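tool_log.txt
---
The assistant was asked to compare two proteins side by side. It first ran the structure predictor on the initial sequence, then on the second. Raw inputs and outputs are pasted verbatim so the downstream comparison step can read them without reformatting.
(1)
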Amino acid sequence: MNLYDQLKPEIKDILYQECETYTCVDCILENLKTKTRYSDLTIDEVKELHVFSNLFTHQISTHQVLYGEHIFNTDKI
C-alpha cells in the first residue's frame, strides 16, 4: 500500500482543497503514490506535507514528525 492510500482522510481533504490554489500540491499527491514508507520521504517532502496540510510545528510533537502518525494511518504502515 502506498503512502497516498495511507493518508488520513482529513489530511487528504485538506491537500485536495489546497490543490485548487496551489498546483504543486498535485505533484505532492502523485509523489505519495510512488512511495510505500514514511522513511522514503525526503525532509523537503515532509516539510511540504506539513505546509500544505496546514500543520504547524507548535501543533505536533517530535515523535509525530519522526513517524508521521499525524499524517498517515500508522496502523497500516
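(2)
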Amino acid sequence: MIILGVDYYPEQWDRSMWEQDITRMEQLGVHAVRIGEFAWSRLEPKDGVFDFAWLDDAIALIAAHGMQVILGTPTNCPPMWLFESHPETLQCESDGTRTHPGIRGHRCMTSPVFRSYAARIIRELAKRYAGRPEVMGWQIDNELESNHCTCSACAKSFRSWLQQKYRTLEDLNHAWGTAAWSGEFSAWTQITPYITSRVNHTDWFNPAYMLDYERFAAWSLTDYVRFQCGLIREYDPHAVITTNSCFGINLPDFHQEFEPLDVAGYDNYPPVILPEDHEEFYSNAFALDFVRGFKQKNFWILEQLGGPMGCWRPISPAMEPGMLEGYAMQAVSHGADLVSFFRWRTAVSGAEMFCYGLLDHDSARNRRLEELEHFSHRLALIPNLSETSVQSQVAMLYSADQEFSFKTQSQSDGFAYWTQLRLFHEACMNLGVNIDIIPARESIDRYQVVIVPSFFVRDPDLAGRLEKFTREGGTVIVTTRSGVKDEHGNCLLGEPLPGPFRRLCGCFVSETDAIGKAHQRLQSEHGGSFSITSWCDLLSLEGAEPVAVYMDRFYAGVPAITVNAFGRGQAYYVGTVGEKAMYRSLLLEIFRSRRMKVMDFLPDGVESTVRSGIGKDFRFFFNNTLAAKTFTLHRQKVFLQPMEMKILTRTGQWI
C-alpha cells in the first residue's frame, strides 16, 4: 500500500478544530499525519518545563481515526528562551555575524550548548513515544543543509576535522598548494571557515581549501544526523528514522547524510509555472530519481506540493487542473512509497501564511481536495504497488565533490554540473528507460550503461572500475571537464585531459574553448546537426572513432564526440554541452545497440517509468506539460490530458 499523508500543525490551531480536521483526513483516505517538527516552544515552554499533554491528545485523536504519525524532532526552531540564555547557540552567517533569532533553522548544529538542550528534548520525546504503534516513523529536524555556520565552535570543529585528515600542517599546506599567494599556514589557529565579508569575491579563496571546507560542512551535518539518530535509538533500536531533504543553497553530501537513516525523505515542490522554452529543465523527475539513489531503494515524500506557493517569493498562480494529482503520481512512479501533502491547513500567521496547503483560509472544500480524493481512490486500486520498485539498466554517477568544486570555480558562463546530469536524465525519461542516480563509490556491475558526467575531481579508484566494467561488456559515457583535478582539488600535472579516463576513452583533449553562452553546431556521424554551447573540447583520437564533429570556428571538422572499443564494451566521450535532442539521439543509438527496450515514440514532455516486482509491472506515462498529448502504443492510441498520469499493468489494464 502506498501511504497517503498530510502535514499538520495542531499547536497552531484551536483544539476545537482538531476533531473536524482529523475526521476529514480519515474520510480522504489519509494513513499518516506528519507533526511536531516546529513545536519546541510548545513542548518546552520554559527551560526544563515540559508539556506533552497537547501532543498526547493530538496523537491519540489521530490514532482513534485509524491513522499513524510521523513525529519530528523540533530542533530546527529552538525556543526564544534558549537564545536569550545562550546567544552562542545562534549560528553565524557567512559574513561572520550572528543570525537574527526568529527565523527557522537558526541554531548552530555544532554548538555543545545547543546539542545539550537538543539531546534533552529529543530524549523526552523518545522516552514518551518510541516504540508506540501510533508512531510509524521519526523525522530529524527539518530541511537540513550543509553546515556553513562560521561561529567559534564550528571553526574549532573544522580545525579538528583537518587535523584528523592531514595530521601535520606541512601535509595540509602541500595538499592545498598554499604556496600560491603566500597562503601557507604556520599555525592551526590561522585556519577558519571562509568568511565572505573579508574578501570581495568568494572565488578568490584557495579552491583546495574551499573543497575541504565543503567536505567538512557536509561531514558536520552528517555528524548532527548521527547525533539525533543515536538519541532516538537509545529508546527504540528499531525506529524508522528519516529527514526531509531539500535542494537549498548549501547542498550536503546527500549519500553521506542519509547513511545513518533508514529511508530517504524529500520535500517535493514541482513548479506551478511551466516554462515556455523547450530547453529549460522543470521536471522534478530528476530530483525524485536522485533522492531514490540516496539509499538506492524506495523513499518517502514528507512534503508534497499542496497548493500555490508563496512566502519566499510572490504568490504563484493557481495550480492547473490535474497538477496536484499528476505531480503526486509522478513521485510514486519514481519510487515514493509515502506521499505526505504540505499542508493540511494554510497557516493564518507566520511567514508561510501565503504558502497554500490543501485547505485555504476559508476552510471550504476546493478543487485541490477533490484531486487528492481522486488520487487516494486510484492508489486504492493498486494495493500491491508498494511491493514494486524502480529497477534500472542505466546508472548515472553523482559525486558531491564535483558539485562542491564547480560551485567554487565556474568553468564558463552558463556551465553547470547539474545541467550535465539533467540532460542525460531527461533523455532517459522521454525514451521510457529507467535510470538510477547513484554515488560514484557504489558498485556498477548490475548495469548495462553507466554515465559519468563532468567528473572534475578525481576519484583514485573510479577509472579502473570503469575500465573493468567496459572490458566486460558495459557501455560508459564520460563527458567534458572530467579528470581535471586531483582528489585535493588541484589541477593534474603532465597528462592531457580527460586524465585518468584517457585510456578508456581512446582520445585526449588537445585544446579547449570555453564558449560560454555562445551557440555553435556539431554534425553527427549518424546524420543531423545539433546546437551546442558552454564548452568545446577539441579531441585527438588514440583508437577512438568520431561520433560527431564541430561545424564552426577554427576547429570545424574536429571530433566533438567519440566512441572507443574497449574489451567487449564501448566508451563514449562527449566533449561539449548540447541541446536536449543531442542527448536523446546519442542515448537512443546506444540503447538500440544494446537491444534495450526504448519508447522512441513518446511526444516531447511525456515521461515514462516502470515499477516492477515479483509477477507484476506497472508502466507509468506522465504528461508533464500543459498541452494534450497523444501517441500509439501496441497499435492503440493513448491520449493524455495536461498533467495526466496513466498506468498500464502487465496484463494490459489501464488504471
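---
observation on (2): The longest strand covers residues 507-524. The radius of gyration is 26 Å.
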